[in-house]
Amino acid sequence: MSFFGLDCRRKKEKEEERHLRANDREFNLTFQYATNAIKTSKYNLFTFLPMNLFEQFQRIANAYFLFLLILQLIPEISSLSWFTTVVPLMLVLTATAAKDAIEDFNRHKSDSQVNNRQVKVLMDGQLKSEKWRNVQVGDIIKLENNQFVTADLLLLSSSEPLSLVYIETAELDGETNLKVKQSLTVSGDMGDDIEALAAFNGEVRCEPPNNRLDKFTGTLIFKEQKYSLDNDKILLRGCTLRNTEWCFGLVIFAGPETKLMQNCGKTTFKRTSIDRLMNVLVLWIFGFLALMCIILAIGNGIWEYQKGFYFQVFLPWPESVPNSAFSAFLTFWSYVIILNTVVPISLYVSVEIIRLGNSFYIDWDRKMYYPRSDTPAEARTTTLNEELGQIKYIFSDKTGTLTQNIMTFNMCSINGKSYGEVLDFAGQRMEITERTPKVDFSFNRLADPKFVFHDHSLVEAVKLEILEVHAFFRLLSLCHTVMPEEKKEGELLYQAQSPDEGALVTAARNFGFVFRSRTPESITVVEMGETKTYELLAILDFNNVRKRMSVIVRCPEGKLSLYCKGADTIIYERLHPACKTLKDVTTEHLDEFAGEGLRTLVLAYKDLEEGYFEDWRARHHTASTALEEREEKLDELYEEIEKNLQLLGATAIEDKLQDGVPQTIEQLAKADIKMWVLTGDKQETAVNIGYACNMLREEMNDVFIISANTAEDVREELRNARRKIKPETIEAEPIFEVKQPKNKSAVLPEDTVEGEYGLVINGHSLAYGLEKSMEVEFLRTACMCKTVICCRVTPLQKAQVVQLVKKYKKAITLAIGDGANDVSMIKAAHIGVGISGQEGMQAVLSSDFSFAQFRYLQRLLLVHGRWSYIRMCKFLNYFFYKNFTFTLVHFWYGFFCGFSAQTVYDEWYITLYNLVYTSLPVLGMSLFDQDVSDRWSLEYPKLYEPGQLNMYFSIGSFIKCLLHSIYSSLILFFIPYGAMYDTMRDDGKDLADYQSFALLAQTCLLIAVSIQLGLDTAYWTSVNQLFMWGSLAIYFAITLTMYSNGMYLIFTASFPFIGTARNSLNQPNVWLTILLTTILCVLPVVAYRFSRTELRPTINDKVRYKVSKSKHAPPPQATRARIRRTSSRRSGYAFSHAQGYGDLITSSRYLRKNMATFSPRSKTNAKQPGTVLKTYRAVKDTVVDKTL
């Protein structure tokens, strides 16, 4: 049972196998399976206060201040009033609790929104509307079109023919293209018969809950028959039902046990490197505090033994103090209370306010707002801002993150002429922008309105009926396995096996060759407005060895033709010798296309003689029915007929990147940030994107491909790569060893590399590389490379790669993705970024920051991240300085007050110093300071490097701050002490009393630390000015008020400094002392900074100098024109295309003749070509190469 939100049930044993029975809640409840309710919140109304206070007091500083409060309640050792600790502590606890409550309230709202969605559940023979939270394992539920899938379901039946359903998996993998699932025939026959479904009592035995999105194993036992279950019969929570009127499903996994929630992984509390360093420094500070207290306690013991013992006539010891040793013991605790300001409690409140303010800047940044989807950037956590300024490694998904998952027909080469470029009147190439005139396809009523092309000369060539151009597009309209759907007259929708195929057929459609419909024996094409039907005689299908596909058709005039498309290296081997000149020209065009990162394909054709084809066809039939060596015999026949081809040209498809991706990656590389791409895509696709994004370049010394299938081969390939990059690392291998002390992470040394290298590794090789015995070898080789691309990786491997870098590299990592398959990676990294604005939002829900476009990452890091880091470092350095200085004056004073634990300042000054007098000025600097503007930050990415090296706040900078504080405290104590010693007022009265000295010392301190803050501030605003001068004004106003006669008369015990302010601050020597003290405090800082800037300027100093000399800000970053280059590297769909399904197309089992138009929801959908495609995808597991 659950009590006050706490799980009080007996701990459930680890599940080895799931066993459930449909429509039998009583049976399923015995296994204590999770319900469908999800819970991401931490507290409820009753547990909030105790749990939150417990968490807050786990912070060392909070527990320390609680301990101080207890000490202050002991009269024998307390020299300060209790309110000096209670007020700040209550403020900190209240502010933090309020922030936690707001965040948890938002989580409750999100949980409630999801848990209270409605779904129809089959109960007691009727469909009843139930909330998601009440759905249980074994329930049968009904989903309708466009509904979210409630839980992980076994598909039972659907409204579509053959019990198919079409689902969108954007929540899982960021992809918006539809996937197809199909139920078992035995359950599919039940349809929507409620009685049959209510009587269904099948038992399922399957795998326990896990995070494998692409795998499911189980069995269904129904009517004493056993049926195998796999992933094609499972609908996962987070998917959306599309193009399906209804379906019924059996709940297998619910709530936290669904694969979606399992992939979310364990939410860990992320702390910044500065937080971790702060924890170490706080321990150091405690040690320093203990040392000071011990010194002063020893001093007290000696003083009491030598002086105090004989002074008891005038100052007797308390009855509880028997001797000087016990007096020293009590003094130790008294000084613990007095010197506690070395760890000011207001520090943590200020840190939270600064982080919150910098988070708002991200939320409010209009330059990170994406208007198309109305999506602003969002800082989903407020505790990690400064770590954005320290990123060294970025791990990125590909599909939906770097790319739009859209293929566009950009260029082509036809009969030796290149099309697609836009030229000016002088024949010079023009950059294509949104303002570039688009080709008008209004002449074609069947054109796709979304298709865009800019080269008008290609349309003119089509209209002029140039034979080669018509043959080119005729080939594209015939040689494919695309299925058309025509919901309304003229509204064509193509369902393609790959996006490339869809882009090519769409291009042919717009240029006047519209693929309209197909049957097993024919293809109907509308050519320039005229409908023609080609007899489809054979499909020579694609596979990974052939890397090409062909069709043999008979045109309406009776001519036989073979049309072929494929990889250039494959097609070139089969061309007629007469094509040599055209081949050379086409090769030049292919080099240009490949140089721009486009995916290329070569087209060729051949006219066939009737007699030869009939003979070949007979032999083909014999081979296709052979019982032995069928594939080999078919390949020989394909080789025979696909010879002496006539070259037509080549196509160039762009795997469309998100806007600004190459420029963003280039900027991040200049900031010395390493980019790793972790994708579930095929190797060829990922490598192509690598070149398109400029992560991989032709100019690189080498790009290593790791694709071995055994552990030893993978190790050898990694070592060979490292041997080529830096041979001495292999030779010194026996010496190199990663020492990993207990409970600490090992750190791999950085290897300096000459030249640039890339590394591409596929999933099965990566599995070996992540093994314990090889992980160091893999990581060391990978870190020597400028770019690393991991292909075919699972969600778990993505997280493992991130954790490997975190384990062995002293570096901050960032992971960015857009799908549920990226969630584990996002949670594993120090910083997780989700791409929002798409259909899939699972990555965003698990991320720390989110925005709509990858290009905003450079602004997040180079502007907001860098500013946040610099502001936090300045704040911490200054805060420690002002508090160390404040506290050390107490230390020096102890030597002059008999180590009596008397405070040098007024108690009210001690209380208000951090809360009022110095809080707003430092917050003003920490919220508004900029060393340079955002444009200069983007102009000079090198400004980012100091954050990666922890140059602005580290143990070294902390020690410098401590030394600076010791110097300042000596000045602030001894100069006022010397100036007040035996000093007279101008009217002859004595000025050298304790209260006057205290006032002078505290005034000198406040003015000195305020000027120091002014020196640290690089960017002044009206708010900074107001906070700075306002705080000083408030100090003098409060001081004059508290030290007035009226306050003394009303609260005599609380305000003993009567008249001190007016008697001291009207003396010229007091102001001269303040001036001298301030100059002596500030002078070394000014001298040091001037010398450093002149003799050893940092990149920051150089840029700021350039900014000061520049009259104007740098112009906004312009989108640069592509540099025209060529490449011998080819990237074509023919290398990455999945096994074709030509056999299905030519099978009359699924396709019927004489089909015209069709609707996806038609009751006659069994005759629908679009359905055929989806049917085949569901039935044949070799069709679609699923992206992880």
From TrEMBL:
One of its GO terms (biological process) is phospholipid translocation. The active site is at D397. Mg(2+) binds at D397, T399, D818, D822. It comes from Acipenser oxyrinchus oxyrinchus. It is found in: Endomembrane system; Membrane. This is Phospholipid-transporting ATPase. The keyword Membrane applies. ATP binds at D397, K398, T399, E501, F542, K565, R599, T679, G680, D681, R792, K798, N821, D822. The chain crosses the membrane at residues 57-74, 280-303, 323-349, 875-896, 908-928, 949-977, 997-1015, 1027-1050, 1070-1090. It is an enzyme of class 7 (translocase). Residues 620-647 form a coiled coil.
